[in-house]
Amino acid sequence: MKNIAILPALFFLFASNGCMSTKKPTASSMSFAPNIVVAHRGAWKKNNLPENSIASLQEAVRLGCTGSEFDVHLTADDSLVVNHDPHYAGLTIEKSTYAELAATKLSNGELLPTVYQYLTEGMKQTHTMLVLEIKPSVISKERGQILAGKVVTLVKQLKAEPWIMYISFDYDILKKVLELQPNAKTAYLNGEKSPEQLAADKIWGADYHYNVFKKNNEWIAEAKKSGINLNVWTVNNADDMQWFINNKFDYITTNEPELLFDIINKKGR
Ligand code: MG
User: Fold this and answer.
1) Which of 123, 143, 187, 229 has a CA that sits 20 to 30 A from residue 169's CA?
2) CA-to-CA distance for 206 and 198, rounded, in angstroms?
3) What is the pTM assigned to this prediction?
């Protein structure tokens, strides 16, 4: 009988140690799948899923991609939503409410995903990083800053920081992210800044169009020297994939993650 009395106390100790529940990873404990494959707008193409859908994120996770990219906008009523274009179902996202936008479902029957739903889904696993693109505002530069602030606030509320790499074409959006979350991984998309410039501004990575790296070949060595991580978009054919593999890129962003896995698994890195 004495032993039975201590069972609840033992249970409490066991549970509070995290043995009975899923322990949330910290930024330093997180290690993503050891490959270079980033699914662009999720893994959608092969299975004809809608881009940027929860289903495309789930497929990227199922494939074991090290990252899954998605695009974020702010609606007129301050919802953070996931979609590539600034328009959805004939409506300008920034000038429409979430209810107006959500009246039209994605082709697979999903509601237009919110960033809350997307992050919550992504945080169910720990091998695929969430590559979060903050889209510049079509209304004003200031609204892009507000969007960046709301995104970082939500990421912090959900304790999603360890999963996130922030990317943007708007340099000031990345600077805003760093102001609010100084240790954030940020990568710039627009392609006109040298790796040394990025390093001076504490940007984590160069995530440029493949033609930028082919034209500015010297930036690859410069990035490695400056500690700038290298990502490239959007690489969809085997020859180009091999070129970036040969140049030891940290990530390759692609609409064809299955093809990139085939190449990596056949030839190694
Ligand atoms: Mg994008």
Assistant:
1) 123
2) 8
3) 0.90
